[in-house]
Amino acid sequence: MTTTTALPPITYPTGSARWILLITAISCAVLELIDTTVVNVSLREISGNIGATTTEIAWVITAYSIANVIVIPLSGMLSNLFGRKLYFTSSVALFTFSSFMCGCSGNLWMLVFWRFIQGIGGGGILSTSQSIIMDAFPPEERTTGLVIFGLGVILGPSFGPILGGYITDNFSWHWIFFLNVPIGILAASLSWKFVQDLPGITKPRIDVWGILFLTIGIGSLQYILEEGTTADWFSSNEITFFFILSIIGLVAFVIRELRIDYPAVNLRLYRNFNLAMGSTMNLIVGIIMTGTLFIFPLFVQVSLGWTATQTGAFMIPGMLVTIIGMIIAKKTMEKGINPKIIILTGLACTCIYLVMLSFSSPDSNSGNFFWPFMIRGVGAVMMVMPVMGLATAGLNGKDLAQAVGLSNMLRQLGGALGVALLNIYLSHENAFVRNNMIPAINPYNPISSDYVNGLTQSMASQGYGPDESTQLAWQLTDATLSKQQLLVSYNHGFMVVALIMLLAVPLILMIRYKKTNVPVAVTDAH
Questions:
Q1: How far is CA 122 from the centre of its chain?
Q2: What's the CA dihedral at 146, 149, 150, 155 to 10 degrees?
Q3: CB under 8 Å, gap of 24 or more: what pairs does 479-484 form?
Q4: Per-residue pLDDT tens for 495-520?
Q5: Using an 8 Å Cβ cutoff, are 163 and 40 in contact?
Q6: Is 329 within 8 Å of 321 (Cβ atoms)?
Q7: Residue 311's closest CA among 334, 332, 329, 294?
């Protein structure tokens, strides 16, 4: 595979310049990833403050996600068009300014508009920062770049809810956005000074139709995944319309990109089998990592009565152990161990974590969840790092930027897909479990009868009349039943995800591996 960057001599930053560049790039990437989840825990406070309904406030998340997923795959082309230094610095500046405007927003649609603009800036930051980090190292040292970016990919979305909850509880929701401003100003200054343009890159022709088809296809798909649960999926004419639109847009996009010589997104890169497999695995990693991270806080808060602060504090040690996982993954990859073994080990760890959670009970506490989250911390890293390596192996410069954009887009879509699928499953499973539990509460079951009678007597002893005591007893019984059904539904959800993950094993085994001196080698499959 011939790349433009092979013509001029390739130089790599060294010493303090390299580390300032790396810190700048990863800080920007973490900021962007935190902002994908930081707002979630503050939606109630924001909606109350600006007078929006529960349905309307969801657009604060949806607008950011749609803009993000459209720009991410285009970031390689835009970086070549404007120059990497200008494009990355402008993206950081746009992200920073729109964050400030989000914090100043006084009504819903002003906030939604600036969140969309923030998503445009954030999409440019994410993929460009990864290509900057990986281009800072020669191929034989690229594992270090993967470690640095992988840490941000895992920790960023995890710290979002914790940071959002703390700021909302102790300050106000506006500071979720204002916090980005000083960091963004510093990052923009450093990026303008230390980020360099790729050598030997000529300005590409603009593929207007390709960009249009991608915007229609990916934007519609992301909207479906974000709003489908609220709209009851295909019973909604709106969701059905956007589904048809997404199919038309994506099919037209693929045909267009494969037929022209100046594609906005170079899909021809996926003639290489391992690059295609790496990006497919990125989709799966997004489904697994984001989906399971989404389900746990809901589980402990709804079923076990944890507060948001308790949940956030508990998850910190599990996130910090990912650093240990990074060291393990880096050492194994540098030794040239088959990446399939590393990914399968990570998959096994994540399955064990989910199976352990699936045996939770009403008496479960943080001690019961400590070791599963330690295992998850190591497993997540061992899945993410080799997959990122496979999705970009053997590429440099312009091709690397294109591959990074596509793999990040697929991981973002995977996250939205994982959350949507789990929402559907939990909704149906909750109804199924409740219908199976209700028949056990009847006058002929001595356990349920004694429970209801005990509650009735307790209410009567507190001064309530006979009818009122009976009504309150049944209300408390229903509340207990609801709590039990949610617990069982979540347990089933953890187990189902663990079993579904095993379906990825044949896909992992299909990866072609040829041991070389460069970690995570690929076999060219032209």
A1: 14
A2: 160
A3: 481/434, 481/437, 481/438, 481/441, 482/434, 483/303, 483/362, 484/362, 484/437
A4: 888 888 888 888 888 877 666 544 44
A5: no
A6: no
A7: 294
Q: Identify which of 70, 67, 45 has the alpha carbon closest to the alpha carbon of residue 57.
A: 45
8 Å CB contact between 277 and 510: yes
- DSSP, collapsed to helix, strand or coil, labels residue 36 as coil
Residue in this structure with the two tokens 């080698």, named with its chain if needed: 521
Question: Rounded to whole angstroms, how far apart are CA atoms 180 and 95?
Answer: 9
Spatial contact of 282 and 508, defined as CB atoms under 8 Å apart: no
C-beta separation of 264 from 214 below 8 A = yes
Could you count the other beta carbons within 10 Å of the beta carbon of residue 479? 10
- 401/73 Cα distance (integer angstroms): 9
Cα separation, 48 vs 60, in Å, equals: 14
The per-type count for the chain, helices as H runs and strands as E runs, is 20, 0
**Cα–Cα distance, 81 to 209 (Å, whole number):** 16
The token pair at 144 is 């270090």
The CA dihedral of 288, 157, 420, 389, to the nearest 10 degrees, is -40
pLDDT tens digit string along 345-402?
888 988 998 899 888 888 888 888 888 888 888 888 888 777 777 766 666 666 666 7
Measuring CA to CA, how many Å separate 412 from each of 158, 233, 379, 419, 479?
A: 14, 20, 19, 11, 36
**Chain-centre distance for alpha carbon 426:** 19
CA dihedral 244, 249, 251, 253 (to 10 degrees): -170
Q: Does the model's pTM come out above 0.90?
A: no
Q: What is the DSSP string of 289-346?
A: HHHHHHHHHHHHHHTS---HHHHHHHHHHHHHTHHHHHHHHHHHHHTT--HHHHHHHH
Please list, in sequence order, all residues whose beta carbon lies within 8 angstroms of the beta carbon of residue 25, skipping any fewer than 6 positions away: 129, 130, 132, 133, 191, 195
Query: Which residue has tokens 């401003």?
Result: 181
Nearest to 133 by CA among 20, 33, 236, 50: 20
In the numeric block, which tokens belong to residue 297? 């806080």
Mention every residue, 6+ apart, whose C-beta is less than 8 A from residue 18: 12, 136
Tokens 């909302």 -> residue:
168
* Reduced DSSP (H G I as helix, E B as strand, rest coil) percent helix, strand, coil of the chain, to 5: 80, 0, 20
Integer Cα distance of 231 and 239 in angstroms: 7
